[in-house]
Design a protein that fits this description.
The protein is of the alpha+beta class. Helix content is about 30%, strand content about 25%. A hairpin with an 8-residue loop joins strand 3 and strand 4.
């Protein structure tokens, strides 16, 4: 990716970013306990992580991530729904920057990612 200071080019790069780049952009900060435990500030959000909403009308509510919708830059959290006029319930889309991860869904890939980020942070000090 090229480096530019042009607002126009930055916005174009952001909104036309491919899925593998969107994954990195759609990162969420970790809760204080997780941050001190893993020595990592934020990680890309994924399905089955448990999050707490920090901004917006649903502030303070917690739930499990049911869907990471990269195309629309949002996540869906279970129990965070609203009722439409026809009584159908729909998920409320939330931007990942407005949530905090309180419990990580950990598998081997996630472990490797956390170890790699921790090692790079330790090497920089």
């Amino acid at each position: 990716m090229t480096v530019t200071i042009s607002r126009r080019k930055q916005r174009k790069a952001h909104f036309t970013a491919p899925s593998h780049v969107r994954r990195i952009i759609m990162s969420a900060p970790l809760a204080k306990e997780l941050r001190s435990k893993h020595n990592v500030k934020s990680v890309p959000i994924r399905k089955d992580d448990e999050v707490k909403i920090k901004r917006g009308s649903m502030k303070g509510r917690e739930g499990k991530v049911t869907c990471v919708y990269r195309k629309k830059w949002v996540i869906h959290v279970d129990k965070i729904t609203r009722e439409k006029a026809n009584q159908a319930t729909v998920q409320i889309p939330i931007h990942p920057s407005n949530v905090e991860i309180v419990k990580l869904s950990i598998d081997n890939d996630r472990k490797a990612l956390l170890a790699r980020k921790d090692a790079s942070k330790a090497g920089a000090k």
